[in-house]
LRRNT domain-containing protein (Sphaeramia orbicularis), 355 residues
Amino acid sequence: MKGTKDIMALLLWLGLSLLVSVQSSAVNNCHPGCRCEVESFGLFDSFSLTRVDCRGLGPGSTMPIPIPLDTTHLDLSSNTLGPLSDTMLAGPGYTTLVSLDLSSNHITKVSPNALSKLRYLETLDLSHNDLEILSIDCFSGLPLAEVDLSHNNFQEFDTNVFAAKVNGEPVSVDLSHNQLTSVFTTPHGKVLHIQSLNLTANQLSSVPRLAGLPLRYLNLDGNPITRIKEGAFAQLEDLVYLSISGLKELQEIEPYAFKGLQSLQVLDLSNNPKLTTLNPTVYSGLDSLQELNLSNSGVVSLPNDMLTHLPSIKSITLGQNIRCRRTQKQGQFHWQLGQVQHNEELNCNADGIVL
Ligand SMILES: *[C@@H]1O[C@H](CO)[C@@H](O)[C@H](O)[C@H]1NC(C)=O
Ligand SMILES: *[C@@H]1O[C@H](CO)[C@@H](O)[C@H](O)[C@H]1NC(C)=O
């Protein structure tokens, strides 16, 4: 009996150690300018990832760069590729790519079928290029989950470019550091599964209409927005995190501006120096809000009935280093109810904040 147990234990140990062992080995057919690495893991090395790093190959490389079959991760950044043609990413080994880095390549154009062979592509980095426009079907049939389009020259962006994605899995899109004056969604009856949209450091002068996107994260930092209008975020009922920070020109947030943001947990309004007052009705509808950041903004006080406006709030930051938290007031014996009643209040580490 004891022997069987020992053998079982040994087998279990062997199995577990095989499962967690990761082996890297060299790859034979690797382009001389690239570094190729295979990582195997799983029982009997049943899974493997081939990573190929062809950063900065220098001028004169002919595309497509030959890569090992079954390559999963390819880094082609800093290669001065220029406009992407239909053939540059069409060689053997490219069809299995899960992740592709094309950043810093002076890419001005992506030909409609340039990416069409990349049937398994989930992560695409096109940041630090010279893109102004994407053809509406250039991501057609790709199972993209993360797309980095930051540091390009987009002035307008139609989110429908993600409508032709192959599956309904959510995608995160980074459009920060462009020249965007307009982001829009042309209605077409299909749900766009964009769950995270980063619009930091663009030229937006108002909050774009994003109604209908199932967004959970939205960042509008550093845009020249002067005023946030009533209902600006209407129909973004899944939004959990909203950042509107570092808006040098933001002067006014209208009453009911955040109406409809019933899932919002974090609201960052920091570093907005021209924002000096917030009418209590601005907080209307933020029933799930837990964290509000007003640090380094012009707002220096809070209404005393803040907890009725923000029933879920846990922490508010404002000024230079002032932090207010929800605390229990000293319990008082309530004679009529015959019990100690606890009242909650907002407690700050500075005086004169709660009016
Ligand atoms: C959004 O973009 C800014 C600027 O590029 C970056 O600092 C920030 O981390 C991004 N947010 C996310 C969630 O990636
Ligand atoms: C509030 O924003 C400031 C400035 O952006 C940042 O430094 C700070 O960490 C934020 N505080 C919280 C509690 O998120």
